[in-house]
Structure formats: C-alpha cells, structure tokens
Write a structure and sequence with these properties.
Elements: H1 3-18, H2 32-41, H3 54-65, H4 67-77, H5 80-83, H6 85-92, H7 106-114, E1 121-122, E2 129-130, E3 134-143, E4 146-155, H8 159-180, H9 189-203, H10 206-220, E5 226-227, E6 240-244, E7 249-250, H11 254-259, H12 264-282, E8 284-286, E9 294-297, E10 302-305, E11 311-313, H13 316-331, H14 334-343, H15 353-364, H16 377-390, H17 397-416, H18 422-438, H19 440-482, H20 487-514
Parallel strand pairs: 5-10
Antiparallel strand pairs: 1-3, 2-3, 3-4, 4-6, 7-9, 8-11, 9-10
Helix pairs in contact: 1-3, 1-8, 3-4, 4-6, 4-9, 8-9, 12-13, 12-17, 12-18, 13-14, 13-18, 14-15, 15-16, 18-19, 19-20
InterPro entries: ABC1_dom, Kinase-like_dom_sf, Prot_kinase_dom, UbiB, UbiB_bact, UbiB_kinase
Pfam families: ABC1
Protein name: 2-polyprenylphenol 6-hydroxylase
C-alpha cells in the first residue's frame, strides 16, 4: 500500500470523527486500547452532531467520504452478525444519494458508451437523481415504433478507478485492525470488503442490471401488482442503461397517493405480497425496497420499482425454509419452526428441538392478540437472531440480504399504512405456497426434481466410468513396469473403483427418494 492510501484513510478517520460516527462505539464490547482511541477521536466531534440521531451521524460521514463508503454502509447493513441488529437497522435507512456530476459530460459519455446508437436519445434533461455509482436523466428515444420517454442511467466518470483506489484503502484498514487489535478478527473485515468489491463489480456493469430487470419481469408475468420498466437494449451498455420512463407517484409522497384515490392499505399489502412471491416462489427478488425506489401507479393501482442494482437470490431449499418458517409463526407451530432450523443445519444437532422450540415460542407468543401497529417483522428478526446466537446458529449469507430487505419492505409498507400487519399480509401468499408444496402437486414437483437430478447423474456415469478405466489402466501399467505392488497405487486403484460404486449408489438413492 502506498502513502496515498494511508493519507486517504487518515482523511476518512477525520471525517468519521467530525461527524460523530465514533459515538456508535459507546457501550460496545471493545478492547481498552480501542476505547482510548474512540475517546480521543470524539474530542474533535462537531458540537451539533450530539443533537442528531446515530443514523444521521453515520450517514453524513459515509456520504461525505463518497461512493465506496456509502456502499460499505449498505453492505454492513446486511451483516447483523458483525455489527449488531440495531446499528444494521440504522444503516439500512442510508439513502444512496450524492451530488450529480457535470451534465455537460453526458453527451460525450453516451457517445463513448453507445457509439452511433446514442444519436437516438434526444432532449436529455439535467440529472433528476444521483447515487453513488450513477445518475439518472430523462430523455426522448426515437424508435422504429415511434417516440418514447425514457430514463437514462449513466455511470459516474472514472467511478471504477475511484472504487479500486478506495477499496485498496479499506483492505489496508482491515489488515491494520486485525494486526493491532486481534479482537477485530472475528468481524472478518477483509471478507466484508470482498463482499463490497463483488457487489460494486456487478453494479458497475449496467448490462447486469438490465438482465436482472428482464428476469424479474418474466417471473412476475401477469401478477399485476408489481411492475418493472421496459429495457431498451440497443441504448444499453456497460456504463449506460435505458429504460421506460415511469409516470407514477413516489411511494414516500403518501398525501399525493391519497389524493389520487389509491388504497394505501392495499398498496402496502401488495408490496409485501409481491416481495414474498419473488422470494418464495421465484427465489429472485428486488433487494433494495426503500421508498426512493418504489412508485405508486394510479393507472394500475399497483407498484412500479426502479434501481435493480441490488438483487437477491436463494435456492429452492431456502425458499421452502423461508415459507415454512413464516407459516409456522402464522399458525403458532413453533415445534415445526425449530425442527426446520435443525433439519436444514442452521442450528447444530447438539441442541434439542424442544429447547429451541421453547425459545421460538418466546418470540411468537407475545405477538398473539397484539394490535396491527404493534407487530414488527424487524423486531421479530432481531429476537430471532438473538436466540439463534444462543443456539450457536451461524449467519447464513444467502438469507442475510433477504432479512435486510424484509425489514426495508416492512418499513415502506408502514409508511403507506401505519396500521400495517406484516403477518396478515403474508398469510395468503405463504399459505398458498405451503398448500401447493405439501399437497399432491408439490410432492410431484419434488419427485420430478429428484428424478431430474438422478437422470443428470446417470448421464454422467459413462464418462465417469471411462475416466476411471483410463486411470486404472495407467496404474496397472505402472505396476507392471515396477514388477511389484505399490501400496499407494493399490489405494488409488481401489479408490477409483469406489468412486464408481458410490456414484451408482447415489443414483439409486436419488431414484428411491423420488419414488
């Protein structure tokens, strides 16, 4: 790491201290040496920041430091296992908004990204929204079918270089912290920066966002309550994304939604139900459902989403797990909830189902008979995380983003309807999924999956056999040349045979499970 890297880190530390971000360390279990450093850092804290909330202090600091630090805050918001539920919930409210770059650069950037295809974009507006990685303009697009109003999302100039430079600084910071404060190693700082780097790499290729929009639109089909803008592929590239313009009301403008005669309670329920269908039914969901990314459409009565840079994906196993967990809470079947955690391996078998079910009951029962405005999914998730820590449950990366977005979606739903009841809204979607899954059709689907896996394995067996035969032939030739039995060669030979036998047994097991 060069001197410039450490100078940038020094500036970051100064900004964090001035904005009062180190106040977050109060009451946290940190080493005495770290407490001393925090105390010194707070000496240069602005006087007025003591009057603001913690999220404001941290959000201000991260926003001042620029795109990489804003994204770092968003990544940390998904890692409640590292920073705790309360701070993560604060960070989840961090809005990805920064000053726009000079609009005079836009024509040149479009020409560089799209070549001659850029000429079809006319009357490009000043920037309407600016985030850490890109900003959005309104424009007219000339197409063979006629003129369309479009939204043009354009990456910030030299954003990739800035990210690479600042990521170097974060890796250096993680290394220094682990070297001089061994207690911080449990936070896996370098892995957090790795996650940030992977996320940024995907977000800075807008073709990936376009593909996500296309996939989500196909999944939603005729659901009707959650819309995705059209993608104009000819005016889309690595650093530019062109989509249909949305004439709708921002979700945060609840008075305008009311004035338009839209049912706010229905909108809130539609938001949660669509999110659950995306996660449980499709395993692919919009993972950044804060109010700035959602609009109410008076024409359809539904919701239209934008900004598909952060998407979540879970497998069929996790889809079933999520649905049955929610269903278990709705029906108060706490034993089933506990059983699922142990069956899927989230909680070690060293703990009993009865003990874990008792802990789950302690979360679920206080919800019974409570008013709609008193039942919070965020609170339930916080308690569930606390309980699972007691039972040695490790954080599951595939569920962390889903948990974070569930909290975001619930908060947005409550903005629309202060009396919103998460459980009532979830029940139709979850019940339908469970009925379809555990019923005759569901069992047929599971059997079909098992048979497909078995057939795929069967197709690979001949190739596996040919490879094993070649290995055995070479091993026997080596033995003949040596004119004696080498124990290592014998082990390899029998190991090859055992591999074939195990493959056949696995095939039989798959077929047996399917039937």
């Amino acid at each position: 790491m060069g001197l410039g890297t450490y100078l940038r880190l020094a500036r970051a530390g100064f900004v964090l201290a001035r904005e009062g971000a180190f106040s977050l360390a109060e009451g946290q279990p940190i080493p005495p040496s770290a407490k001393l450093m925090v105390g010194i850092a707070r000496l240069i804290e602005k006087r007025d920041v003591r009057k603001t909330g913690r999220v404001t202090r941290l959000a201000n600091a991260l926003t001042r430091l620029g795109p990489v630090y804003v994204k770092l805050g968003q990544v940390l918001a998904t890692r409640r296992d590292i920073i705790g539920f309360e701070i993560a919930s604060d960070l989840a409210a961090l809005q990805d908004a920064l000053p726009p770059f000079d609009e005079k650069l836009v024509p040149g950037l479009l020409a560089q990204a799209l070549g001659e295809k850029a000429a079809a974009l006319k009357d490009i507006s000043p920037p309407l929204a600016a985030a850490s990685i890109a900003q959005v303009h309104k424009a007219r697009l000339q197409t063979p079918q006629g003129e369309r109003m479009v939204a043009v999302k354009l990456l910030r100039p030299k954003i990739r270089e800035r990210f690479a430079r600042d990521l170097d600084g974060l890796y250096a910071l993680a290394g220094v912290a682990e070297r001089f404060m061994p207690a911080t190693r449990r936070f896996n700082g370098k892995k957090v920066v790795d996650a940030l780097a992977r996320s940024a790499l995907l977000e800075m290729d807008l073709r990936m966002e376009a593909a996500a929009m296309s996939e989500l639109a196909d999944n939603l089909g005729s659901d009707g309550d959650f819309g995705v803008p059209d993608v104009f592929w000819e005016q889309t590239g690595r650093s530019v994304l062109t989509t249909g313009w949305i004439d709708a009301i921002p979700i945060r403008e609840v008075e305008k939604i009311q004035a338009a005669g839209m049912d706010r309670a229905k909108l809130a329920a539609s938001l949660i139900q669509s999110f659950l269908r995306q996660a449980i039914r499709d395993g692919f969901f919009h993972a950044d459902m804060h109010p700035g990314n959602l609009f109410a459409d008076p024409k359809t009565g539904g919701i239209i989403a934008v900004d598909f840079g952060i998407m979540g994906r879970i497998g069929k196993r996790e889809q079933r797990f999520l649905a049955e967990i929610l269903y278990g809470f709705i029906t108060r079947d706490y034993y089933r909830v506990a059983e699922l955690h142990l069956d899927i391996g989230y909680v070690p078998q060293t703990h009993t189902i009865d003990d874990f079910a008792q802990a789950i009951r302690a979360i679920g029962e206080p919800l019974v008979g409570r008013g709609a405005d008193e039942i919070s999914m965020a609170r339930v998730l916080a308690q569930l995380i606390e309980v699972t820590e007691l039972f040695d449950m490790t954080a599951r990366p595939e569920l962390v983003l889903l948990q974070k977005n569930m909290v975001l979606a619930e908060g947005t739903a409550r903005l629309l309807d202060p009396q919103f009841n998460m459980w009532t809204a979830a029940e139709p979607v979850v019940s339908e999924w469970v009925r379809r899954t555990v019923g005759p059709q569901g069992r047929l689907d599971i059997a079909k999956e098992a048979i497909d896996e078995a057939l795929d394995l069967a197709k690979r067996l001949p190739d596996l056999g040919r490879r094993a035969e070649r290995v055995l032939t070479r091993l026997e030739a080596d033995q003949l040349r040596q004119d004696k039995k080498d124990p290592l060669i014998e082990i390899l030979k029998w190991g090859s045979l055992a591999t074939i036998v195990l493959a056949i047994i696995s095939l039989i097991a798959h077929l047996g499970g399917a039937l």
